[in-house]
Amino acid sequence: MTFLWKTEDLLPAIAGRPIGTMPPGITGISIDSRSIKPGEAFFAIKGDRVDGHDFASIAVANGAALLIVNEAKLPALGRLTVPMIVVDDVLAALVRLALAARARSHARIIAVTGSVGKTSTKEMLRHVLEPSGDVHAAVASFNNHWGVPLTLARMPATAHFGVFEIGMNHPGEITPLVKMVRPHVAIITTIAPAHLGNFSSIEEIADAKAEIFCGLEPGGEVLLNRDNPYYEHLEQKALEAGVQHIHSFGQHPRAAFRLAEFDGGPEHSTIWALIEGETREVRIGAPGRHIAENAMAALGAVRLVGADLDAAADAMATLSAVKGRGQRHRLKIGTSTLMVIDESYNANPASMRAAISLLAAARPQGEGRRIAVLGDMLEMGAFSAGLHAELAEPLLSEGIAHVWLAGKDMAALKAALPETVQAVHFSSTEELTSYVLAHVEPGDVLMVKSSLGIGFGRIIAALLDSFPPMDDTARP
Fold this sequence. Notes:
By secondary structure, the protein is α/β, with parallel strands linked by helices. The protein is built from 16 helices and 22 strands. It folds into three domains: 84 residues, Udp-n-acetylmuramoylalanyl-d-glutamate--2,6- Diaminopimelate Ligase, Chain: A, domain 1 (3-Layer(aba) Sandwich), CATH 3.40.1390; 214 residues, UDP-N-acetylmuramoyl-L-alanine:D-glutamate ligase; 140 residues, Alpha-Beta Complex (Protein-Tyrosine Phosphatase, Chain A), CATH 3.90.190. Helix 4 crosses helix 9 and helix 15 packs parallel to helix 16.
C-alpha cells in the first residue's frame, strides 16, 4: 500500500501525542466525515459553523484509520476505539503538516490569486501540466485559511507540480498562506472590484493581492496581467518585495506571453499565442475571451516551470469548463433543447460581464431566447447599488433582452433597465426558481450567475431535476 504519510513521519510533523495502536500510515487526509475514505486520517477541525469533533464517530464508521483531535475534546471521545493523535489545536496541527509537506516536496509550485479567474486558471493548469508529470492541485476552491494547508498536507512527496489557489476577503489574509506554499511562480490573474465592501478602493484590493509576492521562493517568478489598469502598480509592488523576474501576459504589445488574436465561438475558441517570438495556434475547449486570457497565464506558467509547452498547448483543446464556472448542460425540453450555462459559483462585476459575453455568444435553437438569470453580487458594501445598476450597460450592449433577477441588490439593476428589456425581479432565490421552471421555453439559453451565498446552485439543480439531459454527459 502506498501511504500519503507514514505515521513515523506524521507524528513528529504535527507534534501530537498518540493514543492506541497506530496504523503504519494514512492514505489521505479529510476534514469531512461524509466523504472520508477508508485508510484516511480525519482532522476534526472546528469551523465557524460546525465542530469536526461532533462528527468523529461518523468518520470512524466511514473508515477513518486515524483521528486527529483536540486535547480539550478528548474526554467526549473516550468511547471511540480508533487510534487518535491528540494535539493542542487541530487546525494548527494541519498547518504544521502542510509545512512539512512543502519541506519534503521537490515539485515546482505555482500559486494563483486574483479578483477573477483563480479557480478556472488553477484547473486549467492542472489539465495542461498533466502531460509533463504528476500534478497536485486543490479540489474545488480550497483557497482560504484551512483550504490551503489542507491542499498542501495532501500533496504527495512524488508530485512533479503543485498548483495552489490563494484567496482573500480582507487585507493580510494572503501573506500567511503564500508563506506556506512558497511558490516558484506566482500569478495574479486580474484586479477587479471583488469584496469591495471590505476595502476603501480597488487599489487596496491590488495591494492585498500583491501580498503573494512575499512568499515567493528565492529566484522565483511573477506573472501579471499587462492589460489590467493595475499592472504597473503590481509591478512596483513586486519590485519592492525584491522580485527580480517579472513577466506579463495579455493582449498588450509588450506582454511576454501575448494573446495576439482571439477567435471566439459558442462552445470553444481559438487563439494565436505569441510566446518567445513564436506564434502558436491554440484551440481551447471552453468558450469566452476571459478563458483565453486565463489560458495565456497558464501557458506562461507552464513555460516558467519548465514543463512541455507544446503538450500543454495541445491539451487546451480538451479543456472543459468547471462546475459553477461556465459548465454547460444541454437538456431536453419538448422536442427541442434547453441550454443552461452554470455560472452559479460566484460573482463580481468583472465576472458578471464575462458571463454576459458568454451568453451573448451562445446560439439559441429556433425561436429560443438568451436569458440572463442573475442574483446579487455580495460584499460590495456601499458601492453595491451602483455596481449592480452598472450591469445594465453590458446587458444592453450585448443585446440581452430577457433578464430574470433575484436578491435585494438586483433591484437596482431592474430599475436601471429600460422597458425594451423584459426584466422580472424577485426577492428570493426560491421565487425565481419557480419562475424559471415555469417560463423556460424550447430553444432557450439560460446563463445563471450570482454570488455563492445567494444559492443559485439551487436553480441549476432544479433545472437538472426537471429536464433530462440530451446525453449522459454535460458538454463543455
